[in-house]
Specification:
homodimer; alpha+beta; 7-stranded mixed sheet; 4-stranded mixed sheet; 14 strands; about 25% strand
């Protein structure tokens, strides 16, 4: 739809901006014929017989999901990576992406170049084309939406609904770095060593979608999802959809060395780490018989996996401490459970 | 990605809002298993061997692409229809849609219900499921992005690049109603009869994507696109991509009776109609030998088609008047060509 000129007068700058966008984004198709050089308002993706197409979309708003003055290349890379993380959690191989971007009127060519460069860098990293998109101007904050397409062998996609009582609960990587990383990025962890701050901020700004691991979980995992809202909340989502409960052993939850140090220094509670968002690690369940295969898979893919608990036949998600006592979440965090308790 | 609580404190209302959205949007999946009940952050679309998947995305911003106080059901319906119009122009059958919506914090349950009702009504009209999406809060204006999926038999999709010298240029329906309709919706055409105002406003608010016609143009049309930016501009896009020029005979361009009356009354220039946006009619080219089949197709589908000009081997797009004189576009509209000239 064209912008309504009576609502937002077109300017010479706006025209130049769109020319700039065409110049910046067409190279990101990497010549994939499906993108038709972004000249046709649509992409044409050839059939992949025997595969399901997996589709996911995420919207991000400046000032809500990221800081308005975050570097544009990192905004673009995170936008892509959070969507790829969703595909990884489905066991899918990524195929391509479509971008819908509402850029504030004042956005400059330098900012757009940075954004396109970051997107291009990561599309190349993951071997993906930009298949299409739409760019518009907005009087409001930068608002981005990315649709990611992937594929899985028919019927083999991983879903949230596959957890069964008796399954074990696993996570990839380490938990809580994303939430700590936001604080690190905002320079709110002055007591932490510079390299720890850098590690955590990078974990927040540039998530590592577990593509290699995700696609190889097919046939091993029962249920899977990626952790974006926080381990406990997301495990709750998974259990609700699967009609089961879960128990997590707090001491088993893998933490990075910087997160352990922040916890030891009292800068953060374990509750903050278990409930913080932005991890983009995989959360999945599997029968006990799959444990050895999962451990071998972790070694093969370089993505560590850790068993953190069990699926129960009912109830909600509980987290228990070393003494076997169940912890309960209150609005402000966890009750009777703090670092150094 | 979760909203960053330090950037935008979550409120009880926000939580209720998301529950409401789940309640409102899940029914729009129409039980299509591909949507997984919107509970899985992803859709799983079965393979369609022998078909290309056609993908298109459009972003709309309140105050830019529609009036902020437009009825929510009509905003939703137009969002869907402009995307379906893109699919029709590719000769595709629609399969489903994904919605990314950034709702202003103050949006109420009534507004959301209206939006979902309008979307649901039109998804039902076109027999489509909502396959997935993402809803977030924004401190800015309502910002919507819809990804539409369609399919065409492999290699048979219509594209902009297929125009050849000697082809005839055709349009469906009537041209210029959208641009006039915006003015009608804003009550800027007081001299026009009430039923004309209503007709035009409806043409602007609820475009009629030419689904039946589009899919049956496969094999007949050379190049095709939908008219969203204005007939002349969009024909320019088509010609540029195809490496050709075009000549349009102004007198042949089909106008609706209300548009003819507005033109006769001097409320609008022909230039306004030929360059105005929001028509969502199909613009296509075909060899002269296809003319009889196209006329028969129009009768069969109830979508009138009109031949308005010819594709030339080079040059830009020209529009000629009855005397054969070429008109040229200036910034403010057409030079030396006004209604009643």
């Amino acid at each position: 739809m064209p912008p309504d000129p009576s609502l937002s007068p077109a300017s010479a700058e706006a025209v130049d901006e769109f020319a700039l966008i065409a110049e910046l984004f067409v190279p990101l198709t990497h010549g994939d014929p499906a993108a038709r050089g972004l000249r046709d308002d649509a992409a044409f993706l050839p059939a992949a017989p025997g595969y399901d197409t997996v589709l996911t979309v995420d919207a991000l708003v400046a000032g809500v999901h990221f800081l308005p003055d975050d570097p544009p290349d990192l905004i673009a890379r995170k936008l892509l990576r959070v969507n790829l993380s969703d595909l990884a959690a489905k066991g899918a191989e990524p195929v391509g992406v479509l971008l819908a971007a509402a850029f504030p009127r004042g956005v400059g060519a330098g900012w757009l170049r940075g954004f396109a460069a970051g997107l291009g860098q990561d599309l190349a990293t993951f071997g993906l084309p930009l298949l299409g998109g739409d760019t518009v101007a907005t009087p409001g904050p930068l608002t981005l939406s990315l649709t990611a397409l992937g594929r899985v062998p028919a019927g083999q996609g991983l879903e949230r609904r596959g957890a069964r009582p008796g399954d074990q609960v696993w996570v990839s990587g380490t938990i809580g770095d994303g939430a700590l990383g936001l604080r690190a990025a905002r320079r709110e962890l002055p007591g932490l060593a510079a390299e720890d701050v850098a590690f955590l901020a990078d974990r927040y700004r540039v998530p590592q979608p577990r593509m290699g691991l995700g696609s190889r979980l097919r046939g091993l995992a029962g249920a899977a999802m990626d952790i974006s809202d926080g381990l406990v909340q997301d495990l709750g989502h998974l259990c609700r959809v699967s009609g089961v409960g879960a128990r997590v052993e707090a001491a088993r939850v893998p933490l990075s060395p910087p997160a352990r140090r922040a916890l030891a220094e009292g800068m953060v509670t374990l509750a903050d780490l278990l409930c913080g968002g932005d991890d983009y690690e995989l959360l999945f369940t599997a029968p006990p018989a799959a444990a050895a295969a999962l451990t071998a898979l972790a070694a093969a893919t370089g993505a560590p996996v850790t068993r953190i608990g069990s699926i129960l036949s009912g109830g909600a998600v509980s987290v228990i401490d070393d003494g076997g006592e169940a912890l309960s979440l209150s609005k402000g965090g966890w009750r009777h459970f703090r670092a150094e308790d």
